[in-house]
UniProtKB/TrEMBL annotation:
Protein name: GNAT family N-acetyltransferase
Gene3D superfamilies with a match to the protein in the record: 3.40.630.30
Pfam families per UniProt: Acetyltransf_1
InterPro entries per UniProt: Acyl_CoA_acyltransferase, GNAT_dom
Origin: domain of life: Bacteria
Domain N-acetyltransferase: 50-210
């Protein structure tokens, strides 16, 4: 199961605001599929698990998903986004959010973003911690990749998808890379850089502590 990826997170040197923090090496892996036949679907999880597109752009809901899924794995770049920036991003043609629900409760999500020349990036993918380890992640990733491949069918004017890609890093869950490989993604680039070690923000302070 993939725990998540933060494709907006850019590995960068510490700035003045991070003075005193420890730098740690972070490995970033980029993976791709170059044909719909590359996709290897996962088995359906047990129980009432459904995946639904969030068709109405909602900064409140998208920020909830971002903070809840990425709070323990240091997704921080969008926490400072304004309401207007969320609206602008979510309103871009072809940007889609697909949400997994377990018995009506949001369990995780996939965000898709079209790029030039028929390329679609899986910008975010992950599960809220309470829903990990239940085989929902493989199904959600399979479904999200399939929706990346047929994105143009829902958005007239977009080029037909020719390539689907994503990246993950060593800050993500221990099973993330295995999930991507099992779904048919192939590694095409690896980078190791240093970044400041920031505390995991959680959806709110102390949320994951016993």
């Amino acid at each position: 199961m993939g725990r998540g990826l933060d494709a907006d997170r850019q590995i960068r040197p510490a700035d003045d605001s991070l003075t005193g923090m420890t730098n740690i090496p972070v490995t970033t892996w980029s993976l791709e599929q170059t044909a719909p036949t590359d996709l290897l679907s996962a088995a359906m999880p047990e129980g009432d698990v459904r995946i639904v597109r969030s068709e109405v752009p909602s900064p409140e809901f998208s920020r909830f998903l971002y903070a809840s899924v990425g709070g323990d794995i240091r997704w921080i770049d969008r926490l400072g986004w304004t309401y207007a920036r969320w609206q602008e991003h979510l309103g871009r043609p072809g940007v889609e959010t697909w949400v997994a629900y377990d018995r009506g409760t949001p369990a995780g999500y996939v965000e898709l973003e079209p790029q030039d020349d028929g390329v679609v990036e899986i910008v975010y993918f992950g599960l809220i911690p309470a829903f990990r380890g239940r085989r929902i992640g493989g199904h959600l990733l399979s479904y999200g990749a399939a929706r990346a491949w047929d994105l143009a069918e829902r958005w007239p004017g977009l080029a037909q998808t020719k390539r689907v890609w994503l990246h993950t890093c060593s800050l993500d869950g221990e099973h993330a890379m295995d999930n991507y490989l099992r779904r048919g993604f192939k590694l095409f680039d690896t980078k190791v850089e240093e970044q400041a070690e920031v505390p995991a923000p959680g959806p709110w302070p102390g949320a994951y502590r016993a």
